[in-house]
Amino acid sequence: MRKGIFMENQVVLDSSERNEIIVNYRNLLRASKNVLSDEDVAHVRTAVEMALSRKKEIRRPSGKISAIHALQVANIVASEIGLGRTSIICALLYDVVQHQDVEKNEMAQLFGTSVEGIVTGLMKVKELYSKDTSIETENFRKLLLTFAQDVRVILIILADRLQTLRSLNLYQPGDQQKIAAEVGYLYAPLAHRLGLYAIKSEMEDGVMKYTNRTMYNSIAKKLNETKKARDKFINDFIAPIKKELEAAELKFDIKGRTKTIHSIYNKMINQNTPFEKVYDLFAIRVILDSKPKDEKADCWKVYSIVTDKYQPNPSRLRDWLSIPKSNGYESLHTTVLGPEKKWVEVQIRTQRMNEVAEKGLAAHWKYKGGEGEKGMDDWLANIREVLENPERNAVDFIDDFKLNLYDQEVFVFTPIGDLRRLPKGATVLDFAFDIHSGVGKRCVGAKVNGKHASIKQVLKNGDQIEVVTSKTQEPRIEWLNVVATSRARSKVKQALKEIHYKEAEFGRETLSRRLKNWKIELNDQLIHQLVKHYKSKTINDFFREIALGNIAVTSVKDFVNSQKDEENEKEKQDQATHQKSATNFVANVDDQSDSDDVLMIDHNLKNVDYVLSKCCNPIFGDEIFGFVSVSGGIKIHRQNCPNAPEMKSKFGYRIVNAKWTSGATASFQATLKITGADDIGIVSNISQLITKELKIKMRSISIDSDEGSFEGRVTVFVNDTDMLGRLIKKVKNVKGVYSVSRIDSTE
């Protein structure tokens, strides 16, 4: 049995709840009548019925049943944001689906896949709230990633949070503070960025009401006390303008608007002045009914009328007609000297512009045929880019995100007149990176409006910038304190890593060349000893210190010689190694390597110097590639070299093809890691197997023991991967050996 939208199989409602549902449902139909077809209305009714037919009573922390909240959210979605059928249905249903009263596939069949997709996103957001009335910092990344997938998810959640804020008086005091704080630092900035200024303003006032109640009540009281005098001033100011607008035969609406309590409080703080000294407590708004082709001309006509009557302040002119904000906001603002020598802000816009200002992105869909604005697309793309950066911690991420949401913009120009949007506070260096990362890396300054400027100069609206570059310029660590945009900061960090890698390569080659002159080979074992001795964090850090001169090459030579002296002394004391345990045993033999030309590089290039990289020690049979070094030679790496991903991603232009020629007879160096039990004679057993049984030349063996077990490294010369495989298999069969594996020098 059905009575209206109510059905028998639903939760029990008292009379006040039934009346509240009916009122909200009727309001919803009235608010959406211009955007819903008869079929759409039927779908909305079905969604309302589904929201009411709950398997069990679900009440919100406010005490209200969920269906009432869903209807109120749907009303905001329709009347205050201006969305249509799909979003209204999603606002009504996502709570029902979350509590498994309706299956997602059933919803998709009834209302379409777009509803299912948005509801899925909304459910992900609501899941973050399942344990508390506000979400924790580490969940913000998940929240914003969901937002970035479909902007309608943002808009519906904004409506949800606004309705929650409106009913916050029904919540517990602790929840009131948490919810209000969250709305203030996340949702109000989001509403601002999406151009939903009415919602943003209400949120900010609502937040202040619960987080700074004393100041809120004080300002509200003073506004009420001065309302009569303020209304008289507004009427006196408007009267002569209204007369001239009527004479010009313009269709218009003109009214005064008292500024929000939150914005007045901000003025008191920023201007360090009491309420009585804040001059712009209100603004005059002129809204024109103009044809699309006449919009800008009519707005400037009104500007001319206003400034003929009242003296303007040229520095306070804001022209968002010629260049709208990235959230779509279009308007013409000016400040003029009115009666009683008081400054008054006048905002001039058309009905279309006003709807965009009030309803933001949703109004763009209405006027642009469903196409999003490029600025908003760029913003959402930027959210995704930031979210995918794993290096940022959650707290910094939220701080940066909030700052970016509230960022104002500056509009600047290239030398040929192309417009560029940058956040307020952007510098010459930000502009250079916005043009191209290559331009940014070589930027030494600029000509701003024809005058020389440093990379640090902050840009202003209307600046024309010509970037000055130098081939010798390279990014520096100090640049991170100069740039203001996340794009520039990311590019600077990336460039610094690349520079550090080049410096490390140069340091490696310098040290290797100098040591070679002293008949010392820079092998992987020595590199590890040096990194440990000089307390470097990584191998690259050690070589970079060499390149920068912070570690003298002569000191490395002294260290190597001291190590040799210690080894020689140890050999004299240890003549019968085969009778000793593995404890701290080290043995070295001369390098053995043939010089056959066993490689074909990049279609058999001739007269190209190459070396086998020490970081991964490739041998015949390995999958390999070539990397052009700073000196112009080529280093051969294994495809699975630990450094390969970084080299290929950052220096792809320096990668060349390489492959082994058939029938090669050269020998190659390989290092094995061996673990096992620390038995007497283990060193002898392993070394005899390698050198005598398998006839493989051994370069060095180093074995350390600890509490009955050992770990060793053995470096040998083999012909190919097959020989190495046989060796590994044989060593694994030695009594007491647990494991054998090939390792890179970086391990």
TrEMBL record:
One of its GO terms (cellular component) is plasma membrane. This is GTP pyrophosphokinase. CDD domains: NT_Rel-Spo_like, TGS_RSH. Residues 408-469 form the TGS domain. Gene3D superfamilies: 3.10.20.30, 3.30.70.260, Beta Polymerase, domain 2, Hypothetical protein af1432. Residues 562-582 are annotated as: Disordered. The keyword Kinase applies. Belongs to the relA/spoT family.
